[in-house]
Amino acid sequence: MGVNKKHLATFILGAAAGVAMNKYLNSEDGEKMVENLKEKGKQLKSEAESAADRVPQYFEDLKAGANEKFNEIVGNLKEKYPDVEKMLNDLFAGFSKSKNEPGTGAEEEKA
């Protein structure tokens, strides 16, 4: 693949853009822009570090709030439907038995 006019034009335009950028960055306005960018970068870095430091506490607060809300809901359900807890315990007790225990129906399935 040889170099054609399109490749040569692209190279020349890129080089011209680089020279123009270099001239601008070495001017007073360019130096101000670079300083502003550096300052903004430092601010963003500081904000990111601060946010990263607060993350563990945020999730602890979130967890505590969720536990509190869950306990509130469970308390309300127990208050409004007192027999449900016994019914659910009886229901799930059947699931916790092993399949080979008498009364679970597993021995009839094997026969």
Describe what you observe in this structure.
The protein contains 4 helices and no strands. It starts with a helix and ends with a helix. 83% of the residues lie in helices and 0% in strands. It has helices at 5-25, 28-80, 84-96, 106-110.
**How helical, in percent, are the residues?**
over 70%
The outline comes out as elongated
Which H/E pattern describes the elements? HHHH
Tell me the number of structural domains: 1
Please indicate the percent range of residues in DSSP E strands (runs of 2 or more).
under 5%
- How much is the average pLDDT? 85
Which sheet architecture does the biggest sheet show? Answer: none
Distance between the termini: 78 Å
How many individual β-strands? 0
Give the low-confidence spans.
Answer: none
**Helical segment count:** 4
- The helix/strand class is mainly alpha
Radius of gyration: 35 Å
- Assembly state (oligomeric): single chain
What is the structure about, briefly put?
With 111 residues, the chain is mainly alpha-helical. The chain has helices at 5-25, 28-80, 84-96, 106-110.
Question: What attributes characterize this protein structure?
Answer:
111 residues, mainly alpha, 0% strand, elongated
Helix/strand layout:
Blueprint: H1 5-25, H2 28-80, H3 84-96, H4 106-110
